[in-house]
Structure formats: C-alpha cells, structure tokens
C-alpha cells in the first residue's frame, strides 16, 4: 500500500511515531494525527458501512461534522463505540474496529441491502404499518439485525467522571481567528475569559491555512495563557447553551479506549455560567449532491485541505474538486501546493478575475460552468468522475483518485439556536445565520457569516471589547489586530442543491450520509405530502443521525424548497437541540453513580438491625429493616415468626423513618385544625390523634398522628414517603394562603428516633421498663402519650397502634435511639420481645384494614376508604370544598374491601383487577374491571393471603366471590370479598 | 438553567427551587360553613383552572434547597427572563406594556 503521507507539512510530530491497529491490522501514524488522518496516510479509505444500505463509506469531513467514519475503539472495559475517527486523537496502542459490517468491512453480506434500496424507501416504517401489523414481523427480523451502529461493551462503566461548575465574564466558544481575537480583546480589557475548543489544539484552521494567521495565533494564544483570569480549554465541546448563559461543556480527559492512569477521569462535564457568550463556532462545509457521492474517496473540499494542511496527508494525487463558491479555490490551491493535480470544476459561468488569478502558478486546472455528475469507484476508492455542465449534457469521464466538493458553508448556529434564537436566511451566503437572540450570546466570524480573515478578526475583536465594556471592564485593549493577507474580491455563491444525474448511471445521490437519505427520498417525501421540514425530517430520518445532519440539513431543506417552488427562508429549518455532538453518557452522570447516586438515609438503630440479621429494603432514600433472619430460616419463616409474635406476645419495629414535623405558634391550633379533615380542636394537651390530610381537591393526601405537647405546640408524624411533600404543603399554606397565621413549622424527622412496641404483652413489658409510669389503661389510655425518662434518657411514649394490637410508640432524640432500643430489648427478653421488619408490619396492617401507600394512591377519598365518618362537618379544612364534587360522591365509587382467596391458600397478587368473569387473559380478550387489589400479604391470623382493594359498591359486595385477574402474571383467582377489618373488627385489642 | 432571584438569598441556580404555580390565582375564603355557589366556583377555579399566557407570567417558587421561603416571580415563559421577584406577601411591580 502506498503511503499518502507528505514529506513535510502539517502539525504532526514526525519524531514521535505511534503504532495502532484497525480491524486487527497494524499501522503507524504520528503524534498529532487523528485516527482518520492516520488511516488515510496508510491508504485506508474504507472506514465504515452505512446505517441502512451497508454501502462502503470513507471519511467525509475532518472534524465533528463527520457522518461516516464511526469507529469502536478499545477492548473490554475500555471499549467505546460510535466515535468519529476525525475526533479521536491517535495514541500509542490505539485499537480501533469498524462497525455495522459482517463478517468484515470489505465483504459485508448486509451490503445486499444496497440492492434492495428500492424496497427501503423514505417512510418505510410508516408505510409498512399501514398494512397488517403482522406483516411488519418479517422485515423487522432482518432490519433489527442489519441496521445499527456500534455495540456497547455491556460492562458496567468503572471509569471516573467529574462535574465542574465555574463562572466567567466572557465565554468564547471556538478558538479560530475570531474566537482568539474576541478572547484577547476581552482579556486585555480586564474581563475574566474562558476559551473552549473541541479540538486538541487551540487555533482552528488558521494554524495550517496561512503562515501569517499561524504566527498571529501563536502570539495571541501565548499572551492569553499569561492572564491569570483566562482559562484555555482544549478537547472541550460546548454542547448546549441553556438559560441565563449556562453553557454545558464536556472535556475529554482520558483518550477513548485507553486505560486511564491513576486518578484520571475519562471526561469532565463543565457547567460554565458566563455573563456574555461569544460564539466563534465557525461554519461547516456542505457537500454537493451528485450520484454516488458517498463512495470512499469522495469528501468535503475542506476536509481534503485539512488532511493536507493539518496532518500532511494527501488524500489523492489526481483530484477532482467541484465548487459553487469561492472557498473551493483556496482548498484547491492548498491541495495543489501540497503536490496534487487538481481539476477544479466551477459551477458558476463567471467568477472574478482576482479569484481566477489566485490559482496562478499552481497545478490547478479550472473549468467554468462544470460540475461533477457522478463518482465511479468501489470500496477501495474512486477511479474516475463523470463531469459535465449543469444541464447534465455533454458529460465525460476523467480519471482521478479523489473527488472533493464544496457546496457552500453553513454557519454553526447551534448554540444560538439552543437558547431559542432564530435562524435568518441570507441569500447572498445561501446560509442561515443567527437572527433574533434571546440570550446574551453573540456570533462572530464564520458563525456570523463573516468568512474573510479580516472580517473574522474584526468581528471577534469588536465583540470581545463590547462584552468586556458592557460588564464594566474598560482597560484599553489596544489596536485591533490586522494580518497581511490580501482580500480577494468575492463572487456570490451559486445555489446548487442537486447535480443532474447522467443517464445510465445507477446509484443514489446522498444528502444525509449517516442515515442514508438521498435527494430522491426528499422528493418522494414531498410528493407523499410531508411538506414541512419537521415532517421531512421524521419521514426520511434526514438529520436524525448522531451527526444531526451537520452536513445534510441545508441541502435537504433546500431540495424540499426546490420541490415545492418555495424560497428556503420560507421552508425554514429544523430546530437545533443539544447536544451539539454525541457525548459519553458517563459525563452526565459524573460521580453520581452507584452508591453516590443518591444519599442513603440510615436510622440511628441501623447497626443494631444489621447485627440482628436484618435484610434491608430501600424506602425512599431510607434503608429499612425488612425482616430479621434467625438461624436457617427462609424469608417467609422470618416474616411469619415476627408477625405472629406481635399478635401473640410483643415485638418491636424501627419507625424512625416516619416524617416528623414540629408545629409551633399562637395560631398552631387553628392551622392544625385546617390542615386535617378530621376534628383537631378538641385534641387536649397530652393526647395524640390520628389525622387524615386532604389535598384541596378532596383527595386523601397523607395520614399520620398529631400529639399536642402544649397550647401552641404540636408534634406531627407523616408517612415515610410523604414527609417532604407534607412539609412543603404546610409551608405553602402558611406562606401564601394564610400568611396571617402565626405559625412556624420545621422538619424534625432526622432529630427523632422512633420504635413501635406492639403485642398483647407490650403493656407489661413497658411497665417493667418504665416502673415510674402508670401504664394501665387508665394511666395511659389509647391515644394518650407521656414524656418521661427511660434509664435517664428522654422518651415520649405514645399509645398508638398501626398493627391493631395493643401497641405503643417510643420516640427519643435521635442520638439516644440505639441506647433506648437496647434498653427496651434488654427488658423485653423476659417477655419474648423480638424485632420485626417492614414486611411483618405490612402484613399486620393489611389484616387490620389500616390504609397505607397502596390505598393513598391519589385517587381515593376518605369515604372510599371507609373513613367518611371521620370528616368533620363543623369546621373548614383543606379539601372541604373539593370533597363536595359530584364525582367524589357517586354511590358506585370503588370502596375499600378485604379480599381473601376462596381456596384459602393461593397467593393474592397486589395490582390484580377484580372481575366477575373467571377467564381473563389471552391477547384481545376483554372484561370489565370492577376494582383492583391495592395491597396483599400473608396473614398469620388467617394462615393464608389477605388483601385490601377497592371495588365498585364495595360494602354491598361483601360475601361475593369474584376473580382476581392478573394478566401479566397469567393469574385469575377466585376470591371472597370480606370486610376490610379482617381481625378484631371491634378494636378490642388496641383499646384494651 | 435559570438563575432565580430569591428575595432572601439572591440569585441562585434553578435546581435549588421548586416551581409552585400561578401567583395570580387566590384561594377564596372558605371559612364560612355554608358554601355558596360562588365560593364553590371560585374554589374550583383556584384548584383546577390555570391561564397559559404566552409572555409574562406571575408565579410562585419555593427556595426548597435554600431558605424554603415561597416568593413571587414575574417570568417570561417564552424566553425565561425574570424581571421581578418579591416576597410572597408583597405585590409585584407593574411594568409598562410591551417591556
């Protein structure tokens, strides 16, 4: 294979050769190469297969716009896919693989798709679904296997990613001439400046275009590096511009595919809050659209120039370069100066003398009024080009080893667009430039449509000074930079969206390379009625690849406009959305993964539970003991033992996770009264009451208990899940609705530990632990509480019951939690005390018919849960008027019932639907759901499953046998509808 | 990501706040035990009806991860500019049309 590396030139370090592999084969490149330039230097043109048709593809661009050369890099843990070869900096040992080809890139059997392209037209998916759904199954089988990009390594990502937050006066995105000028002007004026660029070297194409540009860039960048308030960041992509000038960036730290060194993150996500943002993001060249314009060896003119100028790689010795604008000339000149023979096809009939003169003395042959009609070649590159006039006639074939095209430049207005800024069409440039803006962001240089060197420099300099001065920095920045580069009289670009296709030539003319959308697809979409650019995009998938149509969108939209006979400005463009380029997901997660994803809340007694053999379950952010394993018990044995102990003796459960809120103030009583739907006015000091809280629309929001500590002081508990929401609900009503109420609320969830002591022997046990307190039914009646001391530690003993047994809760400041738990455990030994977890707790409350999360599902009223009588008639409260709504008072609303399996042994599944018919299931069968099962568990009392649920006219159905249908579990179980109070309906146990 | 001016804490990042809703709607006085149709209607409007204006919008936010206070903000829902913020019991200033 011949070397395409030039003897000299480029920004590469020829003294540092690097070894790398591509599809298993060893190659060599240099420090400063990208994977794409190193492969081209080795004569490798075939770099990938296209998404849909598996057509052979080579590299098309030279930067982040690349649609074709997507690679998988690294192996095993380091393997990363869908990376653009043009953005991978070469390193020693780089191991790259091609994608979407089998068995190999050269002989990809899926390339047969290419022959089937007539059957995979635009809107293929839409069309196939118009027929029978079953007809889809056949093509789906093949398409799922054929279409696609690279594969993930499917291993957990062990790499480190970091998040950074920073501020600056002026953020400059892009380090070309205009960006560096802007940064320098702002820095000299005294502003703090951050300059980011996605490439590994700052400076942009000025580094290799002209010596005068390079020298100025080196000086300016060196000066910038000396300012203490300037931050220069390479390999950093500004991928999204958000509200109030928050620009999100990702900085590549560890090379993709390369094992990280110690403490090295793979990437850093930067959130930069800037007072002013300057978009020096440049422009992206678009290709001309001609038949077989996707063959390896066909690429953008600028890419060909960049490979020569930046990397010292000549993409071909005999090149055809087609252009419709002035920029093609400098690319042609650069390539010719690097040693290629260039045939420049100028679509325009007339261009300025000066432009023609710029080619003088170079090996460029200029033909006016000519363009490329078709490229000839295969996997290994092009061999010839068919060229001719724009009428498509008098075409001829000329031999060449590369076809380059320039269809004009599209300013990179993505960041401007992210903020809601408008795109404005400029006929003179045939491009969209930033229009009306909504944020303090302004484009300079090519991003603003100012392509000439002196315009780019001047606009950057001016906006840098303006930004700094706006912010009050007024140090003189000195004179604007000027470079000794002659400006040539320009000739207007010629709109050229699709070149004629010669007769007898097969092959599509591609618009979107990555998604295999061609000019014919655009025309077809329009014919089929997809006339808006947004519809065109979805129908043809144009612009929907990982490159987001960077090289494709304008051509596609222009072709649509042409087909409709409308102006491009009228047709418009699709909205650019972040991210600008594909990013590694790890950077978004940053360090917040695994155990660091969310805080873990542990109760004060956590370690004691662990020692006692607890299995934990996450409840919200809490870790709660689910059950405690003894000896070689299985889960069910533990749960049943614990539940049985509550019913028969005494057991203790950690309830520290309950939300707790301290309410104080002269109007505390009035506020509590309005907060709960049941009466609270008569709640006396020293008493506790169950409370039901509604939303303003009448739906039950939360339940808990309220203890009155003093005249103006209440101690509330909420459910574990709703603690934060209840606090916010209270704060809203105090801040906004009733600001006249003098009340303060504070979350004290973390300040208090709590434990429930439940079971028929709980009174005797607590009496033994607290001999100085009268624990009798008279001394501490149901719904009473007492503040006292246990072994000198402050405790609040509340006689409340969730399990339906005689039960108490013992609350204590969090720091005493473990000691109180241990002291009670010690005393409890004589009474058979054991700890119980949330599973037994759940089973016990379901038996008793006490509602919890499954029942408080945001749809149920107090009456639905059989608690209608609790609702106060003679006071105002949140939700009172909402409860009057007609729909909440219908007689046939689903109401709470108990449910038991008719056979007395089968499992009842929460989430099942209750139906009258036995047989439910099978695709397409239908029956009416009368209600649903909200929670289910095993009852030790009944020695079978019991459940709670809601069913139409619930109380009337008690005694009926219905069916619990769970199609996803393929279950339909006969069940008996019973009273929700499945134990002790009179409450003798808890009141006794 | 917006910068929201909390009247107590100053400008802070959006992720410290919770959006609460339209600050123009007022919960009617429901303290009278007899509920009139007018009160019922006003309460229903308060609970269920929201305007969806294009442009300036007065709204409550809560500084959830900060001082926890509720406060009023006038924000343009098109471009997310905020032109005023006041404490919950204060009135937002009036602005000339079109500003």
Summarize the structure.
By secondary structure, chain A is of the alpha+beta class. Helix content of chain A is 23%, strand content 28%. In chain A, strands 8, 9, 10, 11, 12, 13 and 26 form a 7-stranded mixed sheet that branches. Chain A has a 6-stranded mixed sheet with strand order 39-40-41-38-32-42, sandwiched between helices.
Q: Within the largest sheet of chain B, what's the order of strands?
A: 3-4-5-6
Helix percentage of chain A: 10-25%
Helix content class of chain B: 10-25%
Tally of alpha and pi helices of chain B: 1
Q: Low-confidence parts of chain A lasting 5 or more residues at pLDDT below 50?
A: none
Rg of chain B (CA only): 15 Å
The most extensive contact between chains is: A-B, 27 and 31 residues
- Separation of the first and last Cα atoms of chain A: 95 Å
Judged by helices, strands and strand pairing, the structural class of chain B is: mainly beta
Average pLDDT metric of chain A? 93
Number of helical segments of chain A? Answer: 25
Mean pLDDT of chain B: 94
What's the total count of β strands of chain A? 48
Strand content of chain A: 25-35%
The shape of chain A is: elongated
Largest sheet of chain A: 7 strands, mixed
Multimerization status: heterodimer
């Amino acid at each position: 294979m011949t070397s395409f590396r030039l003897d000299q030139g480029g920004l590469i370090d020829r003294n540092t050769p690097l070894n790398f592999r591509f599809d298993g084969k060893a190659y060599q490149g240099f420090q400063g190469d990208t994977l794409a330039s190193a492969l081209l230097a080795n004569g490798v043109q075939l770099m990938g297969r296209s998404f849909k048709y598996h057509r052979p593809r080579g590299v098309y661009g030279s930067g982040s716009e690349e649609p074709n050369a997507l690679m998988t890099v690294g192996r095993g843990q380091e393997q990363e896919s869908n990376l653009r070869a043009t953005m991978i900096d070469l390193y020693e040992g780089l191991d790259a693989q091609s994608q979407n080809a089998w068995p190999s890139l050269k002989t990809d059997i899926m390339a047969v798709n290419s022959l089937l392209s007539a059957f995979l037209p635009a809107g293929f998916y839409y069309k196939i679904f118009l027929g029978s759904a079953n007809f889809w199954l056949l093509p789906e089988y093949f398409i799922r296997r054929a279409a696609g990009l690279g594969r993930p390594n499917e291993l957990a990502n062990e790499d480190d990613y970091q998040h950074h937050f920073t501020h600056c006066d002026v953020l400059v995105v892009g380090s070309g001439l205009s960006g560096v000028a802007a940064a320098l002007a702002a820095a000299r004026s005294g502003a703090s400046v951050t300059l980011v660029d996605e490439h590994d070297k700052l400076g942009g194409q000025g580094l290799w275009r002209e010596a005068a540009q390079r020298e100025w860039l080196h000086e300016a960048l060196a000066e910038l590096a000396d300012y203490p308030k300037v931050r220069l960041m390479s390999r950093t992509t500004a991928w999204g511009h958000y509200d109030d000038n928050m620009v999100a960036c990702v900085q590549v730290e560890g090379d993709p595919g390369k094992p990280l060194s110690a403490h090295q993150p793979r990437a850093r996500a930067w959130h930069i809050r800037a007072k002013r943002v300057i978009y020096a993001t440049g422009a992206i060249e678009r290709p001309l659209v001609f038949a077989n314009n996707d063959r390896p060896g066909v690429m953008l003119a600028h890419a060909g120039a960049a490979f020569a100028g930046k990397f010292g790689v000549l993409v071909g010795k005999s090149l055809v370069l087609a252009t419709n604008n002035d920029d093609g000339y400098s690319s042609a000149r650069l390539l010719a100066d690097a040693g290629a023979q260039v045939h420049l096809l100028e679509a325009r009939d007339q261009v300025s003398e000066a432009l023609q003169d710029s080619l003088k003395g170079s090996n460029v042959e200029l033909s006016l009024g000519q363009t490329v009609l078709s490229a000839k070649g295969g996997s290994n590159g092009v061999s010839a080009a068919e060229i001719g006039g724009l009428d498509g006639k008098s075409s001829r074939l000329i031999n060449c080893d590369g076809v380059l095209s320039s269809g004009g430049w599209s300013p990179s207005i993505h960041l401007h667009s992210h903020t809601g800024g408008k795109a404005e069409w400029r006929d003179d440039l045939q491009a969209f430039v930033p229009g009306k803006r909504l944020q303090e962001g302004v484009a300079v240089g090519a991003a603003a449509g100012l392509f000439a060197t002196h315009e780019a420099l001047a606009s950057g300099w001016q906006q840098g000074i303006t930004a700094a001065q706006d912010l009050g920095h007024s140090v003189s920045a000195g004179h604007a930079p000027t470079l000794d580069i002659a400006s040539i009289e320009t000739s207007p670009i010629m709109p050229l969206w699709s070149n004629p296709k010669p007769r007898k030539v097969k092959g599509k003319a591609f618009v979107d390379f990555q998604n295999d959308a061609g000019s014919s697809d655009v025309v077809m979409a329009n014919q089929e009625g997809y006339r808006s650019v947004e519809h065109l995009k979805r129908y043809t998938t144009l612009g929907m690849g990982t490159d987001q149509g960077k090289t494709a969108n304008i051509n596609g939209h222009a072709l649509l406009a042409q087909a409709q006979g409308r102006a491009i400005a009228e047709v418009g463009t699709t909205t650019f959305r972040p991210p600008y380029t594909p990013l590694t997901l790890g950077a978004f997660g940053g360090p917040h993964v695994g155990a660091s994803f969310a805080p873990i809340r542990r109760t004060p007694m956590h370690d004691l539970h662990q020692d006692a053999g607890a299995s934990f379950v996450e409840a919200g952010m809490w870790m709660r003991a689910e059950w405690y394993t003894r000896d070689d018990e299985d889960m069910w044995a533990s749960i049943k033992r614990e539940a049985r102990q509550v019913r028969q003796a005494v057991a203790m459960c950690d309830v520290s996770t309950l939300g707790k809120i301290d309410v104080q103030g002269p109007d505390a009583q009035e506020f509590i009264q309005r907060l709960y739907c049941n009466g609270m006015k008569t709640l006396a000091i020293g008493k506790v009451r169950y409370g039901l809280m509604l939303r303003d629309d009448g739906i039950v929001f939360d339940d808990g208990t309220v203890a009155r500590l003093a005249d103006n002081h209440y101690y509330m508990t909420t459910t574990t899940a709703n603690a934060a929401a209840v606090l916010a609900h209270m704060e809203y009503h105090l801040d906004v609705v009733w600001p006249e109420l003098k009340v303060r609320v504070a979350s004290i969830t973390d300040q208090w530990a709590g434990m429930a002591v439940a079971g028929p022997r709980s009174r005797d046990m607590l009496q033994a632990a607290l001999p100085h307190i009268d624990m009798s039914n008279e001394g501490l009646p149901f719904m009473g509480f007492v503040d006292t001391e246990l072994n000198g530690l402050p405790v609040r003993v509340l006689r409340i019951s969730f399990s339906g047994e005689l039960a108490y809760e013992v609350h204590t400041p969090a720091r005493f939690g473990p000691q109180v738990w241990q002291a009670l455990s010690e005393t409890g030994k004589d009474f058979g005390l054991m700890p119980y977890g949330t599973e037994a707790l759940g089973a016990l409350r379901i038996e008793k018919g006490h509602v919890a999360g499954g029942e408080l599902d945001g749809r149920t009223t107090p009456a639905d849960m059989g608690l209608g009588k609790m609702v106060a008639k003679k006071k105002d409260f949140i939700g009172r008027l909402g409860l009057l709504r007609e729909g909440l008072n219908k007689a046939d609303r689903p109401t709470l019932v108990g449910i038991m399996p008719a056979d007395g042994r089968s499992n009842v599944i929460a989430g099942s639907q209750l139906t009258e018919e036995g047989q439910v299931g099978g695709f397409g069968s239908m029956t009416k759901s009368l209600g649903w099962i909200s929670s289910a568990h095993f009852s030790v009392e009944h020695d079978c499953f019991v459940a709670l649920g809601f069913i139409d006219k619930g109380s009337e159905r008690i005694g009926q046998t219905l069916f619990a249908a769970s199609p996803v579990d393929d279950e339909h179980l006969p069940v008996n509808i019973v009273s929700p109070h499945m134990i002790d309906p009179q409450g003798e146990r808890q009141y006794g | 990501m917006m910068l929201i001016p909390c009247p107590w804490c100053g400008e802070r990042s959006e992720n410290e706040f919770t959006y609460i809703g339209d600050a123009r709607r007022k919960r009617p006085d429901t303290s009278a035990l007899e509920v009139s149709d007018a009160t019922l209607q006003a309460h229903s409007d308060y609970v269920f009806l929201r305007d969806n204006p294009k442009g300036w919008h007065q709204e409550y936010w809560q500084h959830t991860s900060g001082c926890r206070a509720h406060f009023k903000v006038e924000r343009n829902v098109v471009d997310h500019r905020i032109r005023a913020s006041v404490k919950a019991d204060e009135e937002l200033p009036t602005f000339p049309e079109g500003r």
